[in-house]
Design brief:
The protein contains 15 helices and 15 strands. The chain has 381 residues and is of the alpha/beta class. It has 2 domains: 120 residues, Beta-Lactamase (2-Layer Sandwich); 216 residues, P-loop containing nucleotide triphosphate hydrolases (Rossmann fold, 3-Layer(aba) Sandwich). The strands form 3 sheets. A 7-stranded mixed beta sheet has the order 11-10-12-13-9-14-15, with helices on both faces. Strands 5-4-3-8-7-6 form a 6-stranded antiparallel beta sheet, covered by helices on one side. A two-stranded antiparallel ribbon has the order 1-2. α10 packs antiparallel against α11. The longest helix has 15 residues. It starts with 11 loop residues before the first strand and ends with a helix.
Amino acid sequence: MAENYSISAKVYKNAEFGNWSMEDMLAYFKRHGVMRVSDLHLKVGVQPAYRFDGDLMKLRGETVTKEIAEKLIFPLLGEKHLAEFKANNNVDCSYHYDDLQFRINVFMDNDGPAAAIRALGSDVPELEEIGFPNDVYKDIVKLQSGLVLMTGITGAGKSTTIASFINRISQTRACRIISIEDPIEYILKQKGAVISQREVGRDVPSFAAGLKAMLREDPDVIFVGEMRDAETISMTLMAAETGHLVFSTLHTRDVTGSITRILDYFPSTRQDEVSNQLSLGLAYVISQKLIPKKDGTGRLVCMEILNNNNYASANIIRIGKIEQLYTQLQTKTRDKPDEKMITFEIHLARLVKTGKLDLLEAKKWANDTQCFIDAMNAMTV
């Protein structure tokens, strides 16, 4: 069982650094920083590969065998998660090493056990360090109710941004904060607020069950790690409508896709009802990407932001004309409480014009190439 495996056992022959243990592999994150090295992938038949500045980089060493994979991966699991993996061929868990927190998914493929290991720093960055295109984060921190939805592909930094929001709220407000996560990623420090973090599978059986219990636990601020099904979405929207400030995430690439994804979880007979709930309960959608910097020193954030504290946006969602939201994002960009919106393409153009992004790299990340070209042509800075 798990006690037969050791995180410090030197089981991998690394041509560059000598024999490595899993402890050495985790230390590599700390040596280079989690803003540059985000993930480690282990798979039978290839060398271990780190995601460095967004690209996979294989170690120079031997290919991983089934025996090596087990000796590297299993020490991270513990008895309970190892048993779950052997029963289901898949398990999610977390691991704490030094001052880093790791989110781990272990799974079986056709060659044997594999793992995707995501590093998260223990120090939550300040909101000013995230890279917002405007000061909308100041308005979000002051919210008392409503749903703030962070979206983006895997590895886009959604959890980091939400942790920064919750950290700032905890610093500035005496309130009760409860999260449901799968697994817990950032360990949030108790400051002015009282914070409880609950993990699916350990503390609650599911997001939906945790939300049902949470609504009886007097929360002011709620973090739902991911809206994965119709029941969780319904309860999250209900919590936002009934006076709670709720943060959650979705795996989507832009604002309009996020609204559409939520509606697609429900049958057509319920979509009008959910559209109405969204129009009333949704406060902001922030879609986020991490893009390599022009100088090659890491990645920076590019955002698309919808402010739904705006009659026009809320009405578009209510009547289901989601494709019209993009025009709102393009035009409602002024520094006013009911605006402060932006498209990915406008933010990309700003980052190019200020010398932070390479033009060709930015063009690759645009959702709409022509809109990006138009934004570049219209940009005066």
